[in-house]
Design a protein that fits this description.
One of its GO terms (biological process) is menaquinone biosynthetic process. By secondary structure, the protein is α/β, with parallel strands linked by helices. The chain is about 45% helix and about 10% strand. The chain contains 15 helices and 10 strands.
């Protein structure tokens, strides 16, 4: 049976078959991906999340060549926000109806584990209804090295202080040859997988992610998807839960040291990999479209290439936007609802587990003046 026919039947494809999809006409692959999206997620709705990104510090010792956000401790624009400054950002999110923050920073050796515990307690005491998903696997690895504790011990202490989840950032392409060529000091694949599995073992949230455009080919992209699929299989079998969803975006290089040295990725490659990810990741139902890196129009198109979610409002995005002036830093609920409705779907607000929590009055919202 042809590989696309097998995919359309919902059969699990192996490595060679998934690589073969990269050689097939994209409209044919997209048609299969969209049909599977309609089966695996609600066929009528496209969801979105009201949240905020908070970058508590830009000091980092890892020094990835594709990052324009990080600073050394001695640079004049290096910063670490105070608890009060972070709390004010959370309050601004609550004022627009948001109940989740995504908080990350650099690997800052001046911040002990107790600083993070104190921050979490401070926020939970003042904003008890807000979810705190924070500290990438890279940051947890940094705390391992700083404290001498295991990832499990670090995560247990952070969870006790109020941490709800750890975002799956820093995955990029989970193939060490690709990772080390672009950023030699970046967290290795085994450590990323190990730390995320500890997060899931402790019953906390994480998101599967992927960034293309680091010089990888179809084989490495498929390898990455298989790492995620196998980790999700293990987590579901052992813990009864796993990644809440999947997010794909393209490497932004314009303002980085690797501009002109890494190829980046085109809109065609983005849509192609998104469609193949929908086919490959048969154990993850929620797939995001990336409006910040691709723009609204490509993100709308992505809703017919396997995506069933339009991501989040973010309110503030600093890391990816630092690498490229073409990246949007935020979007309003009105803007996201308009994009979803114009693409032919019903907009619905969700939580981090892709559960619908509210349906906006689309007509009233779109009739209101822009914020």
């Amino acid at each position: 049976m042809d590989v696309l026919d097998r995919a359309a039947r919902g059969e699990r494809l192996n490595r060679e078959e998934l690589v073969e999809l990269y050689r097939r006409p994209l409209p044919e692959v997209a048609a299969v991906a969209h049909a599977l999206r309609l089966e695996r997620a609600h066929p009528d709705y496209v969801t979105y999340l009201i949240d905020r990104n908070i970058n508590y510090s830009n000091v980092c010792t890892v020094g990835c060549g594709y990052c324009a956000f990080y600073r050394t401790r001695r640079q004049p624009d290096a910063y670490t926000l105070s608890y009060g400054e972070i709390g004010r950002k959370v309050a601004e999110l609550e004022a627009v109806g948001g109940k989740r923050i995504l908080m990350q920073g650099g690997v800052n050796p001046d911040l002990p584990l107790e600083w993070f515990e104190g921050l979490l307690r401070y926020l939970k005491e003042r904003h008890p209804e807000v979810r705190i998903d924070a500290f990438s696997p890279e940051e947890i690895l940094g705390l391992e090295k700083l404290t001498g504790l295991s990832a499990r011990e670090v995560l247990e202490r952070l969870k006790a202080a109020g941490l709800d989840g750890v975002p799956g950032a820093g995955a990029e392409i989970l193939v060490d040859r690709v990772r080390h060529a672009a950023a030699p000091a970046r967290i290795p694949t085994d450590d990323w997988v190990r730390i995320v599995e500890e997060v899931l073992a402790l019953g906390m949230y994480s998101l599967a992610s992927m960034v293309i455009g680091m010089g990888e080919g179809p084989e490495e992209r498929v390898e990455h998807l298989l790492v995620l699929r196998e980790l999700q299989d293990r987590a579901l079998a052992r813990y009864g839960h796993g990644f809440s969803g999947f997010a794909l975006w393209t490497m932004q290089l314009e303002n980085t040291r690797l501009a002109g040295r890494l190829p980046g990725a085109t809109a065609h490659e983005y849509l192609q990999t998104l469609a193949i990810a929908r086919i490959a990741l048969d154990n993850i139902a929620g797939h995001q479209a990336s409006w910040p890196t691709m723009g609204f129009k490509v993100a709308q198109t992505a809703l017919y290439y396997g995506a069933n979610d339009f991501g989040s409002t973010m309110l503030e995005e600093n890391v990816v936007s630092a690498a490229s002036g073409n990246v949007r830093r935020s979007a309003t609920v009105r803007e996201i609802v308009r994009q979803i409705a114009e693409a032919g779907f019903k907009p619905a607000e969700r939580n981090v587990f892709y559960e619908i929590v509210a349906e906006p009055d689309v007509d009233a919202l779109l009739a209101s003046p822009p914020a």
